[in-house]
Amino acid sequence: MDTCLETLIAEQQTMATLLHESLQQ
């Protein structure tokens, strides 16, 4: 597995979650 790719995906998922939570408030 490409660790760098996994990190990028994890960061994108985190940003999407933070954005979603910010919109919920």
Describe the overall structure.
The chain is an all-alpha fold and 25 residues long. It is 88% helix and 0% strand. It is built from one helix and no strands.
List the helices and strands and how they pair.
Elements: H1 3-24
Strand content: under 5%
Shape: rod-shaped
Radius of gyration: 11 Å
State the distance separating the first and last CA atoms. Answer: 37 Å
SSE-based structural type: mainly alpha
- Give start-end ranges of low-pLDDT stretches: none
Mean pLDDT: 94
Largest sheet: none
Per DSSP E runs of 2 or more residues, the count of β-strands stands at: 0
Distinct helical segment count: 1
Order of helices and strands: H
- Determine the fraction of residues in helical runs and give it as a percent range: over 70%
Summarize the entry for a quick read:
The chain contains one helix and no strands.
Label this structure with key terms:
25 residues; rod-shaped; mainly alpha
